[in-house]
Write a structure and sequence with these properties.
The chain has one domain: Small protein B (Small Protein B, Chain: A, Beta Barrel), CATH 2.40.280.10. Helices cover 34% and strands 36% of the residues. The protein has 4 helices and 9 strands; from the N terminus they run βαβαβββββαββα. The termini are far apart.
Length: 157
């Protein structure tokens, strides 16, 4: 039986939850070279404009920038190369159906380490309209204001 292992987040897409409405989250493995792993462990990656898509029956990650490892030699790969995602065939088929049917997008939320494996957290998401983003900001501001008011009353009483 496997022991539960801690997740150590290496890189996260902080704007994703603001720009997209997340419907489902899943975990996938990612194919990397040795120098990419070392660079990721140093936290030198960017998921800002990246997305995942399914091509030829396999899942790939596009637009993820992993900086070249500083102590690496001439075998450092292209920082913006397409990387293959490791998913079961059934998961890929399910994702393909949802992306085509509902008009959803696959976006990476974070890259993290579980044990000795590097995983990526993918989300099936729908892009928010500008008014949805404004509504989210209003809700967040109201919640924050209510929390401050209740804290203020608790301090006085």
């Amino acid at each position: 039986m496997r022991r539960p292992q801690d997740k150590r987040i290496l890189c996260s897409n902080r704007r994703a939850r603001y720009e997209y409405e997340i419907e489902e989250v899943m975990e996938a493995g990612i194919v990397l070279t040795g120098t990419e792993v070392k660079s990721l462990r140093e936290g030198k990656a960017d998921l800002k404009d990246s997305y995942a898509a399914i091509a030829k029956g396999e899942a790939y990650l596009w637009g993820c920038h992993i900086s070249p490892y500083a102590a690496g030699n001439r075998f450092n790969p292209d920082p913006n190369r397409t990387r293959k995602l490791l998913l079961h065939h059934e998961e890929i088929m399910k994702l393909m159906g949802k992306v085509q049917e509902k008009g959803l997008t696959l976006i990476p939320l974070s890259i993290y380490v579980v044990g000795r494996h590097i995983k990526i957290e993918l989300a099936l998401a729908r892009g928010k309209k500008l008014y949805d983003k404004r509504e989210t900001l209003k809700q967040r501001a109201m919640t924050k204001e209510m929390a401050q008011l209740t804290r203020g009353r608790a301090d006085r009483g």
